[in-house]
Amino acid sequence: MRNVYDIAYELATALKESNEFKRFKAAKEKIEKDEKLKQMISDFKKKQFELEQKRLKGEEVTSSDVYSLQQLYQIISLNPDIEEYLSAEMMLAKIIADISKIIADSIEFKDELWGFADK
Predict the structure, then answer these.
(1) d(Cα 91, Cα 113) in Å, to the nearest integer?
(2) Contact at 8 Å (CB) between 27 and 81?
(3) Which protein family is named in the record?
(4) Which of 36, 41, 59, 83 can bridge 77 by disulfide, Cβ–Cβ 3.0-4.6 Å?
């Protein structure tokens, strides 16, 4: 039987070699060279985080809050480098989430993983 950690490292290597990761890395490197773009993304992510925190605390997230974030996204996405970065980041995050789901589902660990196990 193979060591699960060795397999995890193989998966990490495969992910690093994927087109999705390479696309993300190239987009990130482009953004990191421009302080204005970095700041725009940082501001957007901060607002996105604040909205998610509100939601998690059970506070009301108004349609105005959502609209404001959507407007900000539309504005910053007019820059092709930012749009490419956010798109590549979203695709990579989806792959990682899919991998986590595949693992959790295959070992029937989903409920335990998220704290919903029957006691």
Answers:
(1) 23
(2) yes
(3) Belongs to the UPF0342 family.
(4) 83
Extents of the domains making up the chain: 4-108
Q: In angstroms, what CA-CA distances link 82 with 19, 33, 46, 97?
A: 18, 12, 15, 22
CATH 1.10.230.10 fits 4-108, yes or no: no
Strand, coil or helix: 41? helix
Q: CA 68, CA 74: separation in Å to the nearest integer?
A: 10
Successive 10-residue mean pLDDT values, the chain, 119 residues: 92 97 98 97 96 94 94 96 97 96 84 55
Place of tokens 């959502």: 66
Question: In degrees, to the nearest 5, what angle opens at C-alpha 115 toward C-alphas 109 and 116?
Answer: 80
